[in-house]
Amino acid sequence: MIDIIHTLLTVTHVIACVFLMLVILIQPGKSGGLGALTGAGAQQVFGGRGAGNLLTKTTWATGAVFFATSITLAYLSSSADDALQTRSEAQLKSETLPLPLPSASAK
To answer: pTM score > 0.70 for this model?
Structure first.
């Protein structure tokens, strides 16, 4: 069950990451950003402040999803395994087991 949740969160995280990059690149900055390449600065489809508000709200919402999935994935990956000290102690015990002595029939 944890694997299904982990996979679903990972897919959501990657989609949010890509969408966040796109939304940030679309936003016009002081110099116009990518909006200057497409001519969006001259057309102003959403009006003077409307595009900024819509893109700003979209950026905040996507950023919140990205942050929440990051925290959740970090928690799931840290709590799923044993502690590092426990795993290293178990590995040391398995490495230091004495080897069996050769039997007399092998001669």
So the answer is: no
